[in-house]
Amino acid sequence: MYKKVFSAAILASAAMAMTSCSTSKNTQNENATKAEKITEAEAARPSADEEMDEGYLVLSEAQQNIVKKNNDFAFRLYQQISGMDSEVVSPMSIAYLMGMLANGADGKTQQEILKAIGCEGVSVKELNDCYKALMLSAGKLDKQTTVNIANFIAINKNFRLNSDFARTVADSYQAGVESMDFTNSKSAAHINDWCKKQTKGMIPSIIDQVDPAAVSYLLNAIYFNGIWQEKFDAKNTRLENFSGYTRDIKKVNMMHLNKKFAYTENDMLQAVELPYGNGSYQMTVLLPKSGKSISEVMKEMDADKLQKLSNDMDRCQVDLKFPKFTTEMDLSLNQIISKLGAPSIFQPGTADFSRFANGSFYVSKMLQKAKIEVSERGTKAAAVTAAVMLTSLGPNEMKRVEFHANRPFVYFITERNSGAILFMGQFLGE
């Protein structure tokens, strides 16, 4: 049988940019004596003196459950990719691409896609409604934080999307759909221009060239640009030692700040939350204690335990040292997605994408490119996900603590109220 094939490529880029603020002082409040306990209610929203610019992210119970399932997927994804290098990935970008693929799939293939992203037992409509709610709200929660989620489908002019699929992705995923001549070399530039535009230049390209036999390219882009609520002062950034896993000592630009942050610790790790803007988004940093490794910490961590860490945090005076860094990553996802539960989407003759277009299709390739930049002012992050379709076959005394990230650590960028993980990664010194 003549089998139509589609390959999926995931491009993700996360960038954290914290630039200096000349008015920000890196001083310690010596007179702070009163403890401020963060209750569960306080942990779910910005502090009282922070004005919510647009409003809270409101999800139904079913949608909140999907976010939790996607966060579980994020941890399982991390276990598949973690190694001995600095890494960054956007599980949300992958989930959005998989969501679009689920709408084009049927039968076992559709169920495998849902299983892979942790949504076994969830209907595609429920998934669509949740992702739409996140898309429409994400950029409205904080005027100081830019969050943009965008989707795009380039379809070979020789093929036509099924009308139901086209309507669904246009409505639930706000996806732009464009018919293109894949024999024209300018098609690759057009697709890459979309990536560059949606990620504000952080990801300038997703493909080197368009395969003339391709049926379609499906892309998701997530861009995040947040300003630290408590900015670092560049004058206090200096080269300091960073201890790697192999006992090698590296020099990194270490930023310094002494402010009040949500903090907790246990026998395995220290954890701190660094909010952006009005507090709707935050970075959570997990620093293994001396003698512990990232792998040991993450082996015991999941979405529920990450939330419990947040709920257990106290407001502390934190002597914070945090590296200024950039990490880029190209990640092949075929084997990873297969191991997570969706092997059939890559198998000719087995994959069922009959709801996508007339014919037989399979995913030939899935990848993600990611980038993250951390500096003194805030965080910029971007992710692009692409799928290519081919034809073929309580109050106490204020605690003072040190949080010196001078050894490998893990970080998460999340929406505070829902806990949705936009980006996650690890930094090992370079």
From TrEMBL:
<feature type="domain" description="Serpin">
    <location>
        <begin position="75"/>
        <end position="430"/>
    </location>
</feature>
<comment type="similarity">
    <text>Belongs to the serpin family.</text>
</comment>
<feature type="signal peptide">
    <location>
        <begin position="1"/>
        <end position="17"/>
    </location>
</feature>
<dbReference type="InterPro" id="IPR000215">
    <property type="entry name" value="Serpin_fam"/>
</dbReference>
<dbReference type="Pfam" id="PF00079">
    <property type="entry name" value="Serpin"/>
</dbReference>
<dbReference type="InterPro" id="IPR023795">
    <property type="entry name" value="Serpin_CS"/>
</dbReference>
<feature type="region of interest" description="Disordered">
    <location>
        <begin position="22"/>
        <end position="49"/>
    </location>
</feature>
<dbReference type="GO" id="GO:0005615">
    <property type="term" value="C:extracellular space"/>
</dbReference>
<keyword id="KW-0732">Signal</keyword>
<dbReference type="InterPro" id="IPR023796">
    <property type="entry name" value="Serpin_dom"/>
</dbReference>
<feature type="compositionally biased region" description="Basic and acidic residues">
    <location>
        <begin position="33"/>
        <end position="43"/>
    </location>
</feature>
<protein>
    <submittedName>
        <fullName>Serpin family protein</fullName>
    </submittedName>
</protein>
<dbReference type="GO" id="GO:0004867">
    <property type="term" value="F:serine-type endopeptidase inhibitor activity"/>
</dbReference>
